[in-house]
Amino acid sequence: MSRHDPIDPADGIEPGRRLIRAERAGTGAFGPALRDRLRSLASHLSPSARATGPLQLLAAFDDPIAGDVRAGKALLAGKFRWRGASLPLETLRFDDPRPGLAEHLHGFGWLRDLSIVATRQQGAPVAEALVRRWLAGHARDDQGLPWRADIAGRRALAWIAHAPLVLSTRDKGYRLQVLTALSRQAQRPDQARPGLPRLAAWSGAVAASLLMAGYAMRRATAEAGLVRALSRLVGDDGGTADRSPESLLDAVALLTSLRAAYDAAGEEPPLALQATLARAVPALLGATHGDGGLASWQGGLPLDRAQLAAVIDASGVRARPLRQARGWGYQRLSGGATVVTVDAAPPPPRPLGAGGCASTLAFELSDGAHRIVVSCGGARHEGAALSSQLAQALRATAAHSTLVVGDANSTAVLPDGALGRGVSEVAVDRHELEGGSRLDVSHDGYVRRFGLTHRRTLALSVDGRELRGEDALLPAGRSTTRAAPFAIRFHLGPAVEGTVTADGQGALLRTGSGPVWQFRCKGGVLAVEDSLWIDPTGRPRATQQLVVSGESSPAGLRVSWMLTKAG
Fold first, then answer.
1. N or C end of the chain: which has fewer CB within 10 A?
2. Cβ-contact 321, 4 below 8 angstroms
3. Which are the contacts of 252, defined by CB distance < 8 A and separation ≥ 6?
4. pLDDT recorded at residue 465
5. Can you tell me the distance from the alpha carbon of 6 to that of 461, in angstroms, rounded to the nearest whole number?
6. What is the pairing mode between strands 525-534 and 516-522?
7. SS in 3 state form for 414-450?
8. Which fold has domain 16-23+58-286?
9. C-alpha dist (Å) from residue 497 to 369, 447, 509
């Protein structure tokens, strides 16, 4: 195994076959139900249950997660950085129509960027001006996007953590407005959508119950809601039910911030909070590459090492990457400087499938700091540089490094954004051998339409210098099998240039001054085509892809291929 992932008998790899089934719509991947069929009787506070007496913030808590220095300096300079763009503060609108921007603005998580670069004296005027603008536009209402339960919960956490910036003024009228809005921001967490939004909503409710005067009566109810949300979102292996590494990173950040709120109140958090963090961090590390950044699974961005480190360091959890997350569905193979991550499960269930991808059996490969084979990624980040049409296309099987039959998705991606029929079962058979790691995986996503099962075998050498692969289409029982075109795609990293060899059966993959990899295949026609990769800022970058194509017969097909590190 790699120097990054030393063998540890406790990291959960068990040889042998395992069948992973997709959850039915409306059910959770790790709990009895993702939809709360029985809402908490006390979670939606009645007016009589609200705090009485003067509004007062008892304490702030130190935000444990370091902000972005560049974004903070931009704020001091009158600019707001978002996904690579720089927006003037004087014309910034909280109701900006660009997808994702309004949510980010209303959540106020960007206050940590300001806090990391500014003293109270420097930062308070900037923060106060923006909070005043928000109050003027949205304090009198409690509907719409600004008051969506998850956004309100995030805003509550941010305002409490950064109260020294938000509440420094002696203007009693303004302070009362802020505290009044804060008291309302965590009153309806049960209305949040299942998954990560519900965790964010309950996190804000818990923080308010700990640190606002007169709200201690809400603590038991808020903690019960938090624990329910955690049990439905984070599984036994530490992964999230939406199967998104980016969501898992967000969940770790929320819980880490909430733990700091408990510290500020001098209280002990629920055991479930720290236990969840202890499971989540290894799973999150398991979805990273050799460069320390995230893989681009389930429409996420390849967030860089610094962003992950800020959250993981703050969590206080020290762990090795989890190499086999059975429920979450990711397998990690490593040797030498090479890391391979594989999507080995059905897509997320329908209630959590927004932005989810038809990526079953795709893989990504990195060599140290160099990403060699990737997914296009970014489907969840429609907005500044991604149109809705492109975001939808990025969810397709063809946007991932795997086999496509008949130009069809292995799981349907519907026009309304939901995931439809397709992969329902994935068989996983993993073995750790003296010469390296071997993974045999298969899915049934093409059985109904083509009568074919896709089986992929990956074998990584112990030194990480060779990855052998085979993609097979196998007739599936009594299903009607017909000939169909196929394409096996290998999307190349942003700094990788592919050149087909003279015999047409191989390619050289050059990384500039970095390593050179060789690709060989048998059983199809090889070509280099254009592709794209969504970078950490959510912007598309032109890249290449290797495509091995041909036509399957009614008897199926087998295509073998190999990636070898040169030199």
1. C
2. yes
3. 277, 280, 281, 284, 311, 312, 315
4. 98
5. 15
6. unpaired
7. CCCCCECCCCCEEEEEEEEECCEEEEEEEECCCHHHH
8. Glycosyltransferase (1.50.10)
9. 16, 35, 6
377 close to 299: Cβ distance less than 8 angstroms:
yes
DSSP-assigned letter for residue 281: H
Structure tokens at 512: 């500039």
CATH 2.70.98.70 in the chain, residues? 330-565
pLDDT digit string, tens, across residues 446-475? 999 999 999 999 999 999 999 999 999 999
Which has the closest alpha carbon to 394: 363, 352, 424, 356? 356
φ and ψ at residue 152, rounded to 5 degrees: -60, -40
Token pair for 13? 């790899």
User: What is the C-alpha separation between 89 and 106, in angstroms, rounded?
Assistant: 14
Beta bridge partners of residue 370, listed in sequence order: 367
Q: Which has the closest alpha carbon to 411: 394, 387, 395?
A: 395
> What is the DSSP annotation of 333-379?
EEETTEEEEEE-SPPPPGGG-TT----TT-EEEEETTEEEEE----T
Specify the DSSP class assigned to residue 41. Answer: T
**Which residue from 206, 312, 205 is spatially nearest to 259, judged by alpha carbons?**
206
pTM of the model: 0.91
Q: What is 330-565's CATH topology?
A: Beta-galactosidase; Chain A, domain 5 (2.70.98)
Please tell me the predicted confidence (pLDDT) of residue 494.
Answer: 95
C-alpha torsion 102→108→112→115, nearest 10: 110
CA 238 and chain centroid, separation: 13
Give backbone dihedrals phi and psi of 173, rounded to 5 degrees, phi first: -65, -45
Q: What share of the chain is helix, strand, coil (3-state, %, to 5)?
A: 30, 25, 40
Among the listed residues 296, 478, 266, the one whose alpha carbon sits nearest the alpha carbon of residue 373: 296
Q: How does pLDDT run across 99-135, given as a tens digit for each residue?
A: 789 999 999 999 999 999 999 999 999 999 999 999 9
Q: Which two tokens stand for residue 37?
A: 């069929």
